[in-house]
Amino acid sequence: AAMAAEWTVLVFGDSWAAYQHPCWPAVLGRRLSVGQVHNFAAMGSLCGDLAAQGQRSLMSPQVPKASGGLLKRETLVVIHTGGNDFIMKMVETLMGGGGGLMALLGGGPAAPAGATPDLLRANPGAREGEVLRQFMETMYRGGARHFLVSGVPAYLEMPIWNIIWPMIGSMVNQGLLSDLGIGPGDPPRLAMEVQQAALQERWAALCDSFGKAHEDAEVVLFDEVAALERLRESLGAAAFDRSMWDMSMFHPTAYGHEQLASEAHRCV
After folding, report:
1. CA-based angle 83:88:91, to the nearest 5?
2. What pLDDT tens digit does each residue of the chain (268 aa) get?
3. HEC sequence for the chain
4. At a CB cut-off of 8 Å and minimum separation 6, what does 237 contact?
5. What is the number of alpha carbons within 13 Å of residue 8 lying toward its C-beta?
6. Is the CB of residue 5 less than 8 Å from the CB of residue 45?
7. What is the separation, in whole angstroms, between the first and last Cα of the chain?
8. CA 75 to CA 144: how far, in whole Å?
9. Which of 1, 150, 221, 226 is the most buried (most CB within 10 A)?
10. How many CB atoms lie within 10 A of CB 145?
11. Domains of the chain, start order
12. Cβ count near 234 (within 10 Å)
């Protein structure tokens, strides 16, 4: 449903929220007919960059505040983070480090070569989830009561995976992913399905516990991977694969973001 013009949407996070064309959080703000959309997200951002983005929003004279200087209740905080922390760092590590690919694709600093990427370790996202929770606490103390949190886009039909499946397969066959219950002969995709589910569970638990701890807050999780799966089903695999991703193989096209905004709209 459309929100009234007194509402403000504040956007935080990474290049799925701020890119060279409008991203779904901003498109969603437009579709909700809110008065203002302010985007504090930045390409290449990691979870750890949320705190500075949040401070900028709370200090910004452009962002509408209530009489005491806190955010107005009619403020929707939209958060999209984790893509660089998990997926891009993994690609960089598996491709041999160096930072070149991350820089090219709008990612953050490179992980050391030879390290096991965080996304391929047991219990992924513990540190990042805590950073996200602290950011939400900061925004809550700043007056925010409405949160839309996107899951991490660990979507396995994204073209970037085609580059790294052989490397993940090699790790599986060397027994390096036994922590995940994955052993030699298992398909590499199975490892990522396990990790994708673990991340989604963690984000869901975080949103649930935050909502319980703050009964006057409304926290909605947007399951972005499930949304992408629905879109591929409804558009057909060939049309989806052709139209959804830009040359980076990791970022949605403008068309892709319009589709994701429609999916996110169903949550709000």
Report:
1. 145
2. 556 889 999 999 999 999 999 999 999 999 999 999 999 999 999 999 999 999 999 999 999 999 899 999 999 999 999 988 888 888 887 877 544 444 444 444 444 445 678 788 888 999 999 999 999 999 999 999 999 999 999 999 999 999 889 999 999 999 999 999 999 999 999 999 999 999 999 999 999 999 999 999 999 999 999 999 999 999 999 999 999 999 999 999 999 999 999 999 999 9
3. CCCCCCCEEEEEECCCCCCCCCCHHHHHHHHCCCCEEEECCCCCCCHHHHHHHHHHHHHCCCCCECCCCCECCCEEEEEECCHHHHHHHHHHHHCCCCCHHHHHCCCCCCCCCCCCCHHHCCCCCHHHHHHHHHHHHHHHHCCCCEEEEECCCCCCCCCCHHHHHHHHHHHHHCCCCHHHCCCCCCCHHHHHHHHHHHHHHHHHHHHHHHHHHCCCCEEEEECHHHHHHHHHHHHCHHHHHHHCECCCCCCECHHHHHHHHHHHHCCC
4. 157
5. 17
6. no
7. 7
8. 6
9. 150
10. 18
11. 8-265 (3.40.50.1110)
12. 10
Single-letter amino acid, residue 203: W
